[in-house]
Specification:
By secondary structure, this protein is α/β, with parallel strands linked by helices. Helices cover 40% and strands 12% of the residues.
């Protein structure tokens, strides 16, 4: 009889993935769902990237690739890091993977041992903690409260570091809150980490180009070059270039770590799709104006979503500086009862009732390590956003 391995017994299916699957099932049954749960850009992949993939396929670029990525893409990644982040990596300090998620998995599997600790700011992306558990490490959550705009406080980071700390994760712009660290705030974090040379840093910069209100982006190895030799700077094509299905992530980092990650990746697969790598090369080296254009569009959506949520009884909503999520506080809804008679005791109850009664899909804050909140993705068309937020307002007005 099959029995799940111990390493997976405490790892649940991602709440956002579970919600997305539920939405697909309901839509297949004919239910009209407003999907605000998936962190996937609704823009098309740039045409020049698609054309590059087509040309690569026609040219016969369809054989096994190097496990760490093809040279043209690695060179494009080098140029991207130099152009956008003022970071200079050698070719053997760069690798490509099946999305940025596998980059992080490779890094943890290649570096942590049982009993090691991984510091994860909360709320944070669901997979950070789960990947740490699978790798045998212990995730250590550090609260980033709303009264600090969901940002990591240097004093809290200092208090969380122990001799067993192997990694600490930075994800700003943040999923699920959209929080962005200023250069001064990142400087304070860097100063703490300078005092702990045994700690590696994983900078997940996948939302780098989704910044609003002229806030500005910075990554920790740029802010403090002395940390570069123990920082893995992670990024990818998915969010910026609307290439989620192409599955191309990449990273720059210390040569020994990249070599170990490449070895780990070699045990999982035989490299990344050559066609996808051709598309990503074209995206990174092609016109970049679309990034600002799309960010401006997202900013308008953010403003409208925040305004509509603030008009919903029982909800307060911080205005995020980046990414394409809002993370509303529903403390004012807890303890109430829906029109259909469901009692709202938790944010999980809230999103479940919202889906079943108003057919709006969101994700509970508990999945990201902070309650009572829920996450909305505004990476969808404006009509759907207005319809979804209108239904949320109606749902909240009906609570008693």
């Amino acid at each position: 009889m099959f029995e799940v391995a111990d390493r997976l017994k405490n790892v649940k299916v991602s709440a956002s993935a579970a919600m997305t699957r539920k939405v697909r099932e309901l839509r297949a049954e004919g239910v009209k769902i407003v999907g605000l749960s998936s962190g996937e850009p609704d823009f098309p992949t740039p045409l020049h990237a698609i054309e590059a993939a087509h040309k690569a396929a026609l040219a016969g670029d369809t054989k096994y690739p190097p496990q760490d990525g093809v040279r043209p893409l690695k060179e494009a990644i080098r140029r991207k890091f130099k152009r956008d982040n003022n970071l200079d990596y050698a070719l053997d300090e760069v690798m490509v993977s099946n999305g940025s998620k596998q980059i992080m998995y490779d890094a943890l599997m290649a570096s942590v041992n049982p009993g090691d600790e991984v510091i994860i700011p909360a709320p944070g992306w669901i997979s950070y903690a789960d990947q740490a558990v699978i790798a045998g490490a212990r995730p250590v959550s550090v609260s980033c409260p709303e009264n600090n705009q969901f940002k990591l406080r240097a004093a809290d980071l200092e208090a969380a570091i122990t001799p067993r700390t192997k990694w600490m994760v930075l994800n700003f712009p943040n999923n699920p809150t959209g929080a962005v660290c200023s250069r001064a705030e990142m400087r304070e974090i860097a100063d703490v980490l300078l005092g702990h040379p045994h700690v590696m840093i994983m900078a997940d910069d996948v939302y780098e180009h989704l910044i609003y209100d002229d806030f500005g982006f910075c990554t920790i190895a740029e802010v403090e070059p002395r940390l570069k030799e123990r920082t893995l700077t992670v990024n990818g094509a998915s969010k910026a270039y609307a290439m989620t299905g192409w599955r191309v992530g990449f990273a720059g980092g210390p040569r020994p770590l990249i070599a170990a990650m490449t070895n780990m990746q070699g045990q999982i697969g035989s490299g990344i799709s050559t066609i996808s790598q051709a598309a990503a090369t074209a995206a990174l080296d092609g016109p970049q104006d679309l990034l600002k254009e799309r960010a401006a569009d997202y900013q308008k959506r953010r403003d409208e979503v925040v305004a509509m949520l603030r008009a919903a009884p029982g909800i307060t909503c911080h205005k995020p500086e980046g990414a394409f999520y809002v993370f509303p506080n529903i403390a004012g809804c807890i303890g109430k009862t829906t029109k259909a008679g469901r009692r709202i005791a938790t944010d999980t109850d809230f999103v479940t009732a919202l889906l079943e009664e108003k057919h709006v899909a969101t994700v509970q804050g508990a999945a990201y390590g902070m309650s009572p909140y829920f996450r909305i993705s505004y990476a969808t068309d404006v009509a759907s956003l207005r319809e979804g937020c209108g239904r949320i307002q109606e749902f909240c007005r009906e609570l008693r």
